[in-house]
Task: inverse folding
């Protein structure tokens, strides 16, 4: 079992209003679903994985996309 894969996940938090950001993400990436963007406290890692799998991006790329959305 890979236990190192959870390291660093605590540092991620949703900046700003996630409902607004998720709407913007869905507009930008029409393949994303409500399920992909469902935010649950403590399950940020799973959400990032769902988004990454749907967009075929790695975790870092997903974080950068979220940051870009937050800055716009």
Result:
């Amino acid at each position: 079992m890979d236990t190192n894969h959870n390291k660093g996940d605590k540092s991620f938090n949703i900046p700003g209003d996630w409902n607004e950001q998720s709407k913007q993400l869905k507009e930008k990436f029409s393949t994303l679903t409500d399920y992909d963007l469902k935010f649950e406290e403590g399950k940020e890692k799973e959400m990032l994985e769902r988004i990454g799998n749907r967009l075929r991006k790695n975790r870092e790329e997903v974080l950068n996309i979220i940051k870009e959305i937050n800055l716009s």
Summary: The radius of gyration is 12 Å.
